[in-house]
Amino acid sequence: MDVIRLTNLYKNFPRFDQGAVQTGNHPVLTNFSLTLDRSKITVLIGRSGCGKTTLLHILAGLCSVDRGSIDPVDLSRRSGVVFQDHRLLPWATVEANLMLALHVRKDLSKQAKRDRVINVLGSLGLEKTLNSFPAELSGGMAQRVALGRALLLEPELFLLDEPFAALDAITRAEMQNLLLDLHISTPTTTLFVTHDLDEASLIADRILVMDQGRICSDIAVDLPHPRHSQDGTLRALKDRIEAALNNGTPKAPFIDTPLRSNQEQPYV
Amino acid sequence: MIISFVVKQKLRSLLLVSTLPIVIVVLWEIVGRLGLTNSYLLPSPSAIWLAAVELWERGHLQRHLLVSVSRVLTGFSVSASLALSLAALHHGLPVVRRIMSVPMEAIRVVPPLAMVPVLILWLGIGEASKLAIIVLASFFPIYLSARTALASTDTRLLEMAKTLRLSRIEQTWFIVIPSAMPGLLTGLRLGFGYAWRALVGAEMIAAAAGLGYLIIDSEELARTDRIFVGIFAIAATGLLLDAIFLRVLPKDNRSGMLKGVF
C-alpha cells in the first residue's frame, strides 16, 4: 500500500430533539480530503467534537461515510486499531486476548499463532503476563497488550485513538518511546489521534490540526528522534499547533500549508 | 494448624446460619407443648416430624417428591429452552421483538393461576396443563434476564471485535455470550425458583401425586400436620435443588469459551 487517499468525504450524524425525533443532521466531516504518507506517523490533533475520532472510526470500518471515496477500498481490513481504553476481554487471559487477534488467520497453525503471541509479548516486555487476566495488569501494561493485539494483525495502517490519554505522565512517556521503537523497527503508516500538544510534537512526522470537520493546518515535522519537550524547536512547534487550534474555523476546505523544518531551521 | 482454622471457620459459619431456624423450632415446640396454640391449626414440630416419618415409611413422601421433582425439571427444561431461544431471536431481530412485545407483555402480567381454567380446556387435566403452569411461571424471569444480559454487552468490546475482523457469529460466541453469561445464569436460577414455586398451583389440577397434591389432599382430610410436611418438603427440596443447580449448571466459564481461539 503506497499511499492512502481520502477524497471528498462527507459524514453527518442525525440530530434529535428531546422527544427522540430527528430534527436534522449534524455535519461531522464536510468535503474532507487527505493523503496519508507511507510509513509516517501522522498526528491528528483538535478539540473535542472536531471529527477526528469519527475519521478514525471511518478508516477502521466502524462507521460508514455518506459520500466520498477511500483508496484503497479495503483499507479497514488492512488496519489495526488501538483505542483510548484497552478493550481487553476481562474474562480472558492475555494469551487468549491476543490469540483472538489471530483467529481470522486460518493459514497459521495453533503453534505458529502461539509463537507470534509470545514474540509480540516479548517485544513489549510482557512475557510474564501470558496467563494474567486484564484486571491483574496496570493501565500501562493493559494498553501495551492492546498495542500488541493490533500489531498481531500486521496492519498496513495503524490507527491509534488517544491510546495513552488515560495513563499517568511517566507511563505515557514510556509508551510513546515504545511506539517510536516499534515504528523504527517496523515502519507502518500510522494515524495517531491526540489532544496532547506535547505528545503530538514528540512523535509526529506530520501534524494535522482539525477543526469543525476540516483540516485547518498541515505541518510537516522534520525533526529527528528522540525529541525533548523542553527543546526550543519543539516549543516553537507547539506554539504553532496551539495557534492553529486557536485560530479555529478554516477559511478553505483544505489548507495545504506544510511547514517544514529541521534542527537547522527552527520554528521561529 | 491451617486445617483447624478452616474447620473452625466452617463450624462458625454453620452455627451462624443454623441458629435462627433452631431457635424458631425450639420455641415453636415449647409453645405447642404448653398448649398455647391450637394443635389443629399449628401442629408442633414433633407432630409434623412424626407425620413425615409415617409418610416416608409408607413410601408416599418419596413418591410425591419424585413426581414433583421430575415435573419441575421437565417444565423448567421446556421453559428455559423457549425463553433462551426467544431472547436470542429478539436480540438478533429487534423488529420481531417489537411485533411480539404487546402480546408478550400481556401474558407476562397475567398470573399463571388465572390461566388454569383455560389450560384445562385446551390441554385437559393430564400432565400437559401442569407443565404449562410451570412453564408460564418460569418463562419470563429467564426470558427477561437473558434479554437484558444480551443487550448489555459492552459495545466497545464489539467495536474491538470488528477491528479484529471477527464475523457476527464469532462476535456472538466470543463476546456477546460470555459477556451475558452472569445474567443468563441468574435468570436460569430465578426461573428455576419460580418453577418450583408454581408447583402447588400446577398440582391443583386434578393431580394424583406430587407435593402440591399432598398438600391439597391433606387439606381435604383435615391433616394439618401433613400439610406442613408438604410445605417443609417443598422448602427443603427447593433449597437442595437450588444448591445442586448452582453446582451442576454451567459455571461462569467464560474463559473456557475462548478455547475456540486456541
From TrEMBL, chain A:
Q: Which regions are flagged for Polar residues bias?
A: 259-268
Indicate yes or no for the key word Lipid biosynthesis. no
Segments carrying the region annotation (Disordered) are: 248-268
> What SMART domains does UniProt report for this protein, alphabetically?
AAA
ABC transporter domain ranges (all copies): 4-237
Name the UniProt key words of this record, in alphabetical order. Answer: ATP-binding, Nucleotide-binding, Transport
Under Gene3D superfamilies, the record lists: P-loop containing nucleotide triphosphate hydrolases
Stretches of the chain forming a coiled coil according to its record: none
Q: Does the keyword ATP-binding apply?
A: yes
Record's superkingdom? Answer: Bacteria
Matching entries from Pfam families are given as: ABC_tran
The Swiss-Prot or TrEMBL record annotates one GO molecular function as:
ATP hydrolysis activity
Q: To which protein family does this belong? A: Belongs to the ABC transporter superfamily.
Q: Please give the name of this protein.
A: ABC transporter domain-containing protein
User: What organism is recorded for this protein?
Assistant: Pseudovibrio exalbescens
From TrEMBL, chain B:
Please list which residues make up the signal peptide: none
**Membrane topology type:** Multi-pass membrane protein
Identify the main location. membrane
Annotated ABC transmembrane type-1 domain ranges read 61-250
* Gene Ontology cellular-component terms listed: plasma membrane
Q: Which residues cross the membrane?
A: 12-31, 72-93, 105-125, 131-150, 171-188, 194-215, 227-249
Name one process (GO BP) from the record: transmembrane transport
Q: Which PROSITE patterns match?
A: ABC_TM1 (PS50928)
Superkingdom, natural source = Bacteria
Family, per entry = Belongs to the binding-protein-dependent transport system permease family.
**UniProt xrefs under PANTHER family:** ALIPHATIC SULFONATES TRANSPORT PERMEASE PROTEIN SSUC-RELATED, ALKANE SULFONATE ABC TRANSPORTER-RELATED, MEMBRANE SUBUNIT
| UniProt-recorded name of the protein | ABC transmembrane type-1 domain-containing protein
